[in-house]
Amino acid sequence: SPRKPLVLQRNSSLGNLLYPAACCSAVTREFHQDGFLVLEHFFTPEECDSMREQIQGIVAEMEVPPHCRTEFSTKEGEQLQAQGSSDYFLTSGDKIRFFFEKGVLDERGNFLIPKERSVSKIGHALHAHDPVFKQITHSPKVQVKSKSTKCPVLVVLGSRGFPSPQPAPLAAVTPHQDATFLHTEPLGRVMGFWIALEDATQENGCLWFIPGSHTNGITRRMVRAASGASTCVEFVGSEPTYDDSQFIPVPISKGGLILIHGEVVHKSELNSSQFSRHVFTFHIMEAKDTSWSKDNWLQPTPELPFPPLYT
């Protein structure tokens, strides 16, 4: 059976995870062996509650015209039909915008349930425009310093809030690699920060990983479509069929952080429980000697270049 992931407490060093040459610790070896690392109790309950309250306030004040309301899905066909055919998604990289659970909108974009239970994802620039999430993203806990380079250049790519209120179920997230959507040359320059604002369990939709799958490269990319195409984005290549028995569940307590290598395969299952599962996530990139693909859907803008992690 798959072995359990290494679980570390809050005082673990993160800087060495980005630059493995700086340290040969078990922490570094485990992250680069598995492609993810669990850091329990990284954020305080008070910080988590602050983020949850901020998400609830943002949702309460949201105003999205019916023609811009799109359902969030990780299934390829549904992604192209919904987000992929909408400028609302493609131009969301420097804004705070809203994407909705499947089945909560009628054919005209009107809500079938209360709007506060309809939101699947808020993205993609919470880290830039919201003071609470900006503080968390650039907190001393996250502003790691590497000893392996004289001047590491780390930038923030994008951020997302996942409200997952109940009783509305959180849809499953299909197996994927973040590098499919956030491609760099060379690979291996992107890492995700996945923060549990509540306990994430197998019942309410914790993450599942295939340990070591980040060493196999990628076979699929989502890219901007050529001008005149029927959708704004398209997929190049195909996602392999994964063996479910290779995945291991990674439950984590409120305040826990999971570091996610850009190429590790991960997913989450349907939340059909009576418990919500609020999450805040963002991605950072080692920018030194890294080429950000101009085909990526997410692009820096004059209004919001990718901000440096260190402030």
Automatic annotation (TrEMBL):
Keywords: Iron, Metal-binding. One of its GO terms (molecular function) is metal ion binding. Its cofactor is Fe cation. The keyword Iron applies. Belongs to the PhyH family. PHYHD1 subfamily. PANTHER family: PHYTANOYL-COA DIOXYGENASE DOMAIN CONTAINING 1 (PTHR20883), PHYTANOYL-COA DIOXYGENASE DOMAIN-CONTAINING PROTEIN 1 (PTHR20883:SF15). This is Phytanoyl-CoA dioxygenase domain-containing protein 1. It comes from Cairina moschata (Muscovy duck). The lineage of its organism: Eukaryota, Metazoa, Chordata, Craniata, Vertebrata.
